[in-house]
Amino acid sequence: MLCRARSSGQGDDSHTIHCRGYRKRRAPGRATAGAGSLVLLGALVMALGIALGCFEAVVEIGFGGTARAAAPLIVDGDFEANENGNQLRAREAGGQGWYESRNRQGPEEARLLLKLSTKSIGGNKTCKAMIKAHPEHNTYLSQCLAEPKSGRFSLQWDIYVREILPPYNRSAFQMIGNARQRGRGPNGSGKERFVFLGFAAGTEPGKIDLFAFEGRNQDQWDEQTILVRGLDLEAWHTIRVDVDVEHQSYQVSVVGVTDEPSEVQAFRTKKDDPPETLTHLSFASWDDGLGTFYVDNVIEPVGR
Question: Which residues, in sequence order, are CB contacts of 111 under 8 Å at separation 6+?
Fold first, then answer.
């Protein structure tokens, strides 16, 4: 169960709240007498979440004057809470969960390129998200993080690339950033992106390379920094990122493949430094970066 909550007392009664189809338990006493300042803190955190593109940022007020995030950073990481593609693509009003973020008011054809797959893919027979390549559309799978992040944190996901198509020979983009620029959705513009990964067609048939966009070459924003060469196409790979927002950097590992993580600089545009607060995780295929791929098991990893 991905929506877990931690108890804030012993032997007290509890009530339940719902998150993306899962049930989590929360101890009572959240906004008791004397906790007025903490309630105000919760309101301020929620306002920040809304300003950064999240509909909701939930805060729990516990005994002893503690405030903490009420939900894990990512919910429904295994996609099992979705009954169909329509549910996966839709954004729940006031809630945290997956949705198609680039075309909310755009062409339906582009939204439908994000699908819920229950087919056996590389031995994985569970629910998973699929984004299908299209030469005319950009399609994004996004989720708002449970709380804005401006320090250190880690995320991990499984990704299966079925195809990367010419002429651009790059796709399956993986981004962590924010949603400050209205109109394109989270991670829809360069200035919103901090973690910026993708896969490129390898030099050998059936192989792909994991790369990062760092923006070091200000005259060529899409210059690639190759992190891992020769990964198998049509195979599941587990990608882990350890983010350090303050130092504008992150580490990338392919679990079971790399011995040491790759050090990567946060993406920057010609005019802007990397974002200072991160609120969204996104996966995408572009009209100038065509690829078909699957995503599953998005989690906060524990330890190294």
Answer: 89, 100, 103, 104, 139
